[in-house]
Structure of Cytochrome C oxidase Cbb3:
Amino acid sequence: MKFNWGTGIVITIIAFIAFIMYFVITMSTDHAYSHDLVTDKYYQAELNYQQEIDATQNAVNLEEKVKIQRDNKGLLIKFPEDYQPKEIKGKVFLYRPSNKQLDFEIPISISKTYLLVPEQRLLDGRWNITIHWSYKNTDYLLKQEIVY
């Protein structure tokens, strides 16, 4: 067999295709490269985006902001002191970017102006916290990244 330019080009193309196929198969089957979407219902969430913008602006306009701080018992979420606790309704969603199984949601049902997320539910690392609440028929939304 004689090795010439044509043979070299064909071998190069076959080697390149083999490399690309190996790369595609590895990336699609290896669980280390498996990434989930933030939400499964992406397009439905997109339709409510203007309401989220308005609720976020309402939270920014508050005179006394919602405070999120680490406590020895867990994560403490403090609402404004002048709020009536029974009037605060909503939910707290904690999203763990590195592991979907650790995500959880807590309904806001409080008797004081703070909510405690137990330390047992939180692992050390990065969390995205979304607090969506309503007070006297006004919606509020706070999104924040925290490192616990």
